[in-house]
Design a protein that fits this description.
Largest sheet: none
Radius of gyration: 18 Å
Strand content: under 5%
């Protein structure tokens, strides 16, 4: 099972956990690197990208786009 493989290979489990964490945190770190004067433009670009991705998912998958949340 998963727990046995994690117990046998803790370094591998730690590496996978680190990669997963980095994938979730890097957008916030990238936003922290933006200069204060350019922050509104960066947030606007982020919002546009999120709205575009959401619209694309809705068009591609229809009403089942968010079924994984149920």
């Amino acid at each position: 099972t998963l727990f046995r493989s994690v117990a046998r290979r803790p370094a591998w489990a730690g590496a996978v956990l680190g990669i997963g964490t980095a994938l979730k945190i890097w957008p916030a770190l990238a936003l922290a690197a933006v200069r204060r004067a350019k922050l509104p433009a960066a947030l606007g670009g982020f919002a546009a990208a999120m709205i575009g991705a959401t619209a694309a998912m809705w068009i591609w998958f229809g009403s089942a786009a968010w079924s994984f949340l149920a």
